[in-house]
Design goal:
It contains 10 helices and no strands. The chain is mainly α. The chain has 2 domains: about 100 residues, HD-domain/PDEase-like (Cyclin A, domain 1); about 90 residues, Methane Monooxygenase Hydroxylase, Chain G, domain 1 (Up-down Bundle). It comes from Chryseobacterium panacisoli.
């Protein structure tokens, strides 16, 4: 008999068939694996961690006209079909509703350890070599410029400004990616983020050298 986790994997794979490559099943799989690794170092509800990691991007608002209510609805309906206890469902929805970078100014006062773990995992997948690849893939998906010397990063954007931003892909490093290392919640997450952060700094140095034909 298949477990709830197995059923969730199958459900997510089906729902995200054909999704933009930076937010597809493979992104989910990496975040799930990262979350499991981090969870091993924390006192947490591992089922909540796994379910939250698997469902966290089931309906990413940026691909649904900014609607943040779709993912929780889809997740609740699925988990209820799986006869998951209401207490667990509420914990999973709490993670899904609070994980996003753009909602950091509305972060809960007392985040659960499960939220901290899955948030770290999601943010780790946004940096390093994979993060660079995902960022340029999404920039191409939106037809954004890779870089423009005269367009400076917009730091400290509000949630609405961030959602509407169509800045260059290189600016996105300064507006988000390079900020993530210092936003990690767990000790394991901090250690994992360090190497990836440094990789991005080296990449940017090389990018500017090649752009300027130095």
């Amino acid at each position: 008999m298949k477990s709830t986790i197995d059923n969730t994997i199958a459900f997510v794979k089906e729902k995200l068939e054909g999704a933009e490559a930076g937010h597809d099943w493979f992104h989910i799989e990496r975040v799930w694996k990262l979350a499991v690794q981090i969870a091993e170092t924390e006192d947490c509800d591992k089922e909540v961690v796994e379910l939250s990691a698997l469902l966290h991007d089931i309906a990413d608002p940026k691909f649904h006209n900014g609607d943040e209510t779709i993912a929780p609805k889809i997740s609740r309906a699925f988990l209820e079909e799986q006869n998951v206890p209401e207490e667990t469902i509420l914990k999973v929805l709490f993670v899904i509703e609070n994980i996003s970078f753009k909602n950091r100014d509305q972060a809960p006062v007392n985040p659960s350890i499960e939220l901290k773990i899955v948030q770290d995992a999601d943010r780790i997948d946004a940096i390093g070599a994979i993060g660079i690849a995902r960022t340029f893939n999404f920039g191409g998906f939106k037809n954004n410029l890779m870089y423009h010397p005269d367009r400076k990063p917009k730091l400290g954007m509000s949630k609405e400004e961030y959602k509407k931003s169509n800045g260059t892909t290189i600016n996105h490093f300064y507006e988000k990616l390079l900020l993530l290392k210092d936003m990690m919640n767990t000790e394991k997450g901090k250690k994992m983020a360090e190497e990836r952060h440094n990789y991005m700094l080296n990449f940017l140095d090389q990018f500017y050298k090649e752009w300027n034909v130095d």
